[in-house]
Amino acid sequence: MTTTAHPPDHLAGTTDDRALRRMQFGWYINDWANAAFSATVLTVFLGPYLTSIAKDAADPAGNVHPLGLSVRAGSFFPYTVSFSVLLSVAVMLLTGTIADRTGRHKELMCGFAYVGATATMGMFFLGGDRYLLGGALLVVANIAYAVSVALSYAYLPGLAAPDERDAVSSKGWAYGYAGGGLLLIANLALFEGHDALGVSSGTAVRICLASAGLWWALFTIVPLLRLPSRAGVAPERAAAEPGRPTTSSLRELARTLRGMRQYPLTLLYLGAFLCYNDGIQTVVSQASLFGSEELGMDQTSLVAAVLMVQIVAIGGALLLGRIARRYGAKRTVLGSLVGWVITLALGYLMPAHQPVWFFALACMIGLVLGGSQALSRSLFSHLIPAGREAEYFSLYKVSDRGTSWMGPLVFGLAYQITGSYRSAIISLLVFFVIGFALLTKVPLRRAIEAVGNPVPERL
Q1: Residue 275 CA: distances (Å) to CA of 371, 422, 431
Q2: How far is 101 from 97, CA to CA, in rounded Å?
Q3: Rounded Cα distance, 13 and 326, in Å
């Protein structure tokens, strides 16, 4: 039997369908807001620009020396992304636990969003050889982004019934790609017309980076006004254990990590997701670097290709959501992973200085990108014990939309060793192969029943 969507328990009896739709819209706009950082900053402009700054600061051997370490200038950006995610793991886990204990999901989510937006706007001041400033701003912004999005994911179980989560999650991703794509259109126009505006290409890039922070800050007002403070059911354990929120949350976090062993199937799914989605996010975050350095694409072609990904991904997310209704989310995700393997192989073989082929590759990425992530998110929402949404989604967010760390590390090491971005991109195949193999081993119905959640009709 198909159930209807229900609000969090603390709103039960006071919320009708119209109010629920209002909350859903606020949640969709949160994706619309933060996708600007993922698309404009991580995917398009910051990688090539920060790499060029690092190269300007490099020694005669082509190396820079952050924190006394010697690394290739071309590896600085992926290494920084990886480092930021390693730091964000601890921040996400602690913040998720505090949110579930205190019920301040919205305040923490929006607070971190504004920290990230401020750091992103600060990227306007990059230039010259200030690659360390760029790295520091990227670390702060990416940590804040990761925490904010993890907390937003915690709302999904309370915004949609089990059989409706694939559709709601897919719609959220579609809003995200639409928002990110719309800002990219404006930034593409700005970059293309920078001569007419009397600014240099570097200044145009810095304006584009700052615009993502401004967009993020402005549209975060909508979820701030429309979402409730608490994402899920109020946990009784918060009242049972008095004390400072941070100290108590550290103890609760330790218990959560130990307690996850009670749900081995949830852990197996999480392991599969962390693996294959790390590959996905590395492809997304390093695509511009690969395109500019290995394929010889200019900035205009890179922005146009990423814009194409954003547009196609809107339809891809909705299309795969519809396919999942008929064939199940798990099989649809597995099929999308096969598509990712094919895409990587074609990227490795792609000739340089051929924009048409690069755009074709962008279309392939767009078709599988949004759907694979949206369906993975909705599947995981079924595998979380009630009242621990933010904690579990903090673990999930370790590898999601720009916050992967294993992939950039492997990508950076492959380039460090070989000096070839083709070798770096093909090295990511291992993440998709292992992730596919692990996902096939997850019995979803048993996993959902194990955490005490209702099982949807089709998985």
Answers
A1: 17, 21, 5
A2: 6
A3: 33
H helix or E strand, kind and range, residue 64? strand 63-64
| pLDDT, tens only, 2-53 | 344 444 444 444 447 888 889 999 999 999 999 999 888 987 889 889 999 9
Question: How far is it, in rounded angstroms, from Cα 41 to Cα 186?
Answer: 14
Percent of the chain clearing pLDDT 70 (strictly above): 89
Query: CA angle, corner 135, sides to 134 and 137, nearest 5?
Result: 65
Grade residue 236 by pLDDT with cuts at 50, 70 and 90: very low
Contacts for 90 with CB less than 8 Å, ≥ 6 apart: none
Q: Which two tokens stand for residue 73?
A: 């200038």
Q: pLDDT tens-digit profile of 159-207?
A: 888 888 888 888 888 898 889 889 988 998 898 898 899 999 899 999 9
**249 alpha carbon, distance to own chain's centre:** 25
The dihedral region occupied by 369, where left means phi > 0, alpha psi between -120 and 50, and beta the remainder, is alpha
Are 436 and 340 contacting, i.e. CB atoms less than 8 angstroms apart?
Answer: no
Task: Determine if residue 380 is left, alpha or beta; phi over 0 gives left, psi from -120 to 50 gives alpha, anything else beta.
Answer: alpha
Q: Could you tell me the two tokens for 47?
A: 């990688």
Please give the Cα distance from 106 to 227 (Å, whole number). Answer: 7
Q: Which residues pair with 71 in a beta bridge?
A: 64
Rounded CA-CA distance 86/405 in Å is: 7
**pTM of the predicted protein model:** 0.75
